[in-house]
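Researcher: Go.
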Amino acid sequence: MRWSFGDPTGWMIGGGVFLALSLAIGWAVYGVSYRLQSMGSLGHSVPASRRGSVVFGLIIGGGVFAMLVLTSLSGFAQLVLQNGNLTIQYRWSGQKIVLPFIEVMNVQEEPAYKGQWRLVIVTDTSGIYESALSSQINVHRVAEVLRHQMAHSHVSGQ
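Model: Structure:
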């Protein structure tokens, strides 16, 4: 069984919008920082270095981008249940995690942002895996199937 979370086109559009927003904020921070540095104090002109302003703009812009991605575009994109293993695939990092399904202790459905939901999988080794944002219906369907499989595997003693 294979499930997908999040819309790939939406992820690309969201990533592009977040990147553009972050670049604009970084550019604005650079401009203000450089302007303030070049003003000097009490009318004394000070030769300003662009390096500090560039670094400051990059740090702020990169921080904004990282926060937006980590909050809105994070989580695993695919989940595969096959041969007693649960495979979790992340879109941005390409990371793939394979867990024995027997380690799954809890499956939760959590509301997230603007009517979107996340599937949260908790393992007996205290691993917590959150899905990308998806519709409540999609998250509920996957959660129900996983809970059914968990009950079935515990009853059969696997």
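Model: The longest strand covers residues 104-111.
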